[in-house]
Design a protein that fits this description.
Elements: H1 12-18, E1 22-24, H2 35-46, E2 54-60, H3 64-75, E3 83-88, H4 93-106, E4 111-119, H5 123-132, E5 138-142, H6 150-159, E6 163-167, H7 179-191, E7 196-199, E8 208-211, E9 220-223, H8 226-237, H9 242-249, E10 257-259, E11 263-266, E12 270-273, H10 274-283, E13 285-290, H11 294-302
Parallel strand pairs: 1-2, 1-13, 2-3, 3-4, 4-5, 5-6, 6-7, 7-13
Antiparallel strand pairs: 8-9, 10-11, 11-12
Length: 306
């Protein structure tokens, strides 16, 4: 990868690919911080040198009041850009939406919920939820890639102009979907013009074999890399064959990826130009949820990208 010591000016392709890409999920495993620590981490990193990569703060709808109490010192006062939240629905999506509407009304100008994450395993769940969505809320429906009705679920999202969500890992090896499942999800979404986000298991930029938690006796497993995931999605948008997509997703060599101010190149021959990266982030992968912000940043620094 490229060497760079100037943290203030990453390559244009890096900035385009990763701006606002990390939704901070510090409340969730394996970090699973308490609310105060998670909010403090988000506030510090949001205002730091790499804050341009920070997306939304992820919080369950049932913990919105707890969030407000912890975040009060950061969100009050003049000239502060409102925090953006992505809220995870409870079992009752309707009640969750009502709570979000009330929350936004009461906290206008300080913090706003503009992203809503909800699980759906049927087209009726998608349609009923969409009927209740206010226009300011973008919904990401977590749908099971291995389900028999997966194509129908994606079609429903496309018809209703909604977004998808894929779970790309967890705290055990069996929580990580196989490459072919991830690629099937991505290709189907891209063919249907359904943007999506990914969550869990994407702490590291390049595919690797690592401990899956921070415990001393943590289980180990192969983790998908977020650079692999983003670039594979970019090549999927450009209609590359599944065999190529699998090679990109499973490439464990950082040297295979080259970044400059005009494009990102894989193995010296296949490239995504800036306009394609912009289109990828707008119409393809929107973000990925990570319980750590520091870990992705440190890895990118080691690769010379920050």
């Amino acid at each position: 990868m490229n060497d760079s010591t100037d943290i203030a000016t990453p390559k244009s392709s890096v900035r385009t690919l990763l701006e606002g890409a990390i939704d901070y999920a510090g409340l969730f495993p394996p970090s699973q911080y308490n609310m105060e620590r998670a909010v403090n981490n988000y506030a510090l990193n949001r205002s730091g040198a790499y804050g341009w990569m920070m997306g939304r703060f992820v919080v369950p709808v049932a913990r919105l009041d707890e969030f407000l109490e912890a975040a009060e010192q950061y969100i009050l006062g003049p000239n502060r850009a409102p925090w953006r939240l992505s809220v995870l629905a409870s079992e009752d999506a309707y009640d969750s939406i009502k709570a979000i509407i009330a929350f936004n009304r009461e906290n206008a100008g300080k913090v706003t919920v503009d992203s809503f994450e909800v699980k759906a395993n049927s087209t009726s769940k998608i349609e009923n939820t969409v009927d209740a969505l206010p226009p300011f809320l973008t919904a990401y429906f977590e749908i099971p890639p291995a389900a028999a009705n997966f194509p129908d679920l994606v079609a429903s999202l496309a018809i209703n102009r909604q977004c998808a969500k894929i779970r790309t890992g967890g705290v055990t090896a069996d929580a990580f979907p196989k490459s072919k499942e991830v690629i099937r999800f991505v290709r189907t979404c891209m063919a249907a013009n359904v943007p999506f986000k990914a969550t869990a298991g994407l702490h590291h930029p390049i595919r690797c074999f690592k401990p899956l938690t921070y415990a001393d006796n943590a289980p180990t497993g192969t983790m998908h890399g977020f650079l692999n995931m983003f670039l594979m999605t970019g090549f999927a948008r450009e209609s590359f064959q599944p065999e190529v997509l699998e090679e990109v997703l499973e490439d464990e060599f950082a040297e295979a990826f080259s970044f400059d101010d005009e494009s990102i190149t894989w193995r010296g021959e296949k490239a995504l130009k800036l306009w394609q990266l912009e289109r990828l982030r707008r119409f393809g992968i929107q973000s990925f949820g990570s319980c750590s912000f520091e870990e992705p940043v440190e890895d990118l620094k080691e690769l010379g990208l920050l």
